[in-house]
Amino acid sequence: MRIEQLQYLVDLAQSGSLSKTAQNFYITQQGLGNALKKLEQEFSTQLYVRNNSGVTLTPMGQYFVQRGSEILAIYQDLCEQASKTCLSTLDCALSIITHPRIFQYILPTIITTFSTHCPHVKIRIIEEAHREFWYQADYEHDFDFGLAAIGNM
Q: What are phi and psi of 122, to 5 degrees?
């Protein structure tokens, strides 16, 4: 069983529609149907029945949704706790090389948002317009990523 299969089934129970659930997860209805079919095969049980108004969960499907929701809540909690622990113990640095115009107009907003979400990351910004400097910095692996100006700014 995969976490995604439980997520699909819980969403299907809420939406009552295969097409809505497929849209919610940005997958095809066929992909959704295949994932749910594999779940049914793994446990040798039918979880839902299609009908004119969408789908109806079987009693086992209802049980799966109930217990699956509990599993998904625990999984979400584990993810959040791991993320907090990881982020709080990291001492990271991010080096960005950028054209001065990009720095002046675009980057401040991006950096402010990023710093709000990742306050543990130290950001180093290199402003440089000359291509030769960019080539040298790239060769020496002196930055993590760059934002260049194409054409006139």
A: -90, 130
